[in-house]
Amino acid sequence: MPPRLATRLNSFRSQGRTAAEALAAVAQVAGMTAVELNYPQHFTANRGILAEAAAAGLAVTALNLRWDGPDFVHGAFTHPDPANRATAVAQACDAVALAAAEGIGHVILWMGPDGFDAPFQAEYARLWDWEIAGFRAAAAVAPGVRVSVEYKPSDPRRVSLIRSMSDALLAAGDVGAANFGVTLDLCHALMAGENPAQAAAAALARGKLFGVHLNDGYGPADDGLPVGSVHPWHLLELMWELRQADWQGTLYFDTFPDRADPAAECAANVATIARMTALLDRLPAARLARIRAAQDGVAAGRMIQALALGGSDV
């Protein structure tokens, strides 16, 4: 199992719980050792939330930045009004400073408002420059805190500025800071038409995979379904890549149990990760290496199905 399994606090607040009650509910799920919090939203509503997480026995492994509300409808780091841009960058910098002060090692920037909706709407090079400047400012606050961009191809903008792993790695290269990297969200990767394992491999090869958000969906939208519920093979392959790289980060359940008991759904996610880990323990590495060397997709499918479902792969 990975060092940390974390979950989305708001998943546990869907039943009207307070933050403290939600944290206590998370801590009751066997295998859960951490949460990640939204900044500034969770802190605006409850300044004592870090103490409440500690009291529940949960580590806070990351702060997740979101820019909600009317001030950021037209952008965060790329807002046309310089005052709004400055406010968005200041929030990111404040989050990194708080993370440094509280021993939280990671800040994740989801740049949902940054992008465009129509042809001729924006000066693309200018948007990119503003985005990179914001990333650099946040990363410079505390070199000991990892800062990453969580890419997504669209939603709420029709076209996001950072829409793929390639875009995110390009941004990381332009930022040029050792502590700036990428967070991969499985649903977002599927939305972008990516193979999650391939996307992870690209970031791992460059030492830039700082976060992994797990969920599932059908591809076109950010469905937030239980882990492994639609694309179990993609999940298994992603976990294989992480294992091969000896990745030591947090696996974060970014799911939306709107029609399910959140504790039961979280427990199912934990069980899925345990099952996938057990499958990886039994995966014949030498045979897989031969299959990959031959790039034999049929043999790969037979091997994985036999491993998971039983029977012979000969």
Low-confidence stretches: none
User: What is the rounded distance between the termini?
Assistant: 30 Å
Shape: globular
* Overall residue-averaged pLDDT value: 96
Largest sheet: number of strands, sense, barrel closure: 8 strands, parallel, barrel
Beta-strand proportion: 15-25%
Determine the structural class based on helices, strands and strand pairing: alpha/beta
Rg, alpha carbons: 20 Å
Helix content: 40-55%
Strand order of the largest sheet: 1-2-3-4-6-8-9-10
Secondary-structure element order, N to C: EHEHHEHEEHEEHEHHEHEHHH
Give the count of helical stretches. 12
Number of extended strands = 10
Describe, in plain words, how this protein is organized in 3D.
It is a single chain. This protein has about 325 residues and is α/β, with parallel strands linked by helices. About 45% of the residues lie in helices and about 15% in strands. The strands form 2 sheets. The protein has an 8-stranded parallel beta barrel with strand order 1-2-3-4-6-8-9-10, surrounded by 7 helices. A two-stranded antiparallel sheet has the order 5-7. Strand 3 (about 60-65), helix 4 (about 80-100) and strand 4 form a beta-alpha-beta unit. Helix 4 (about 80-100) packs parallel to helix 5 (about 125-140), helix 8 (about 195-205) packs parallel to helix 9 (about 230-245) and helix 9 (about 230-245) crosses helix 10. The longest helix is centred in the first third of the chain and has 21 residues, at about 80-100. The radius of gyration is 20 Å and the shape is globular. The chain starts with a strand and ends in a 5-residue tail after the last helix. The model has no long low-confidence stretch (mean pLDDT about 95).
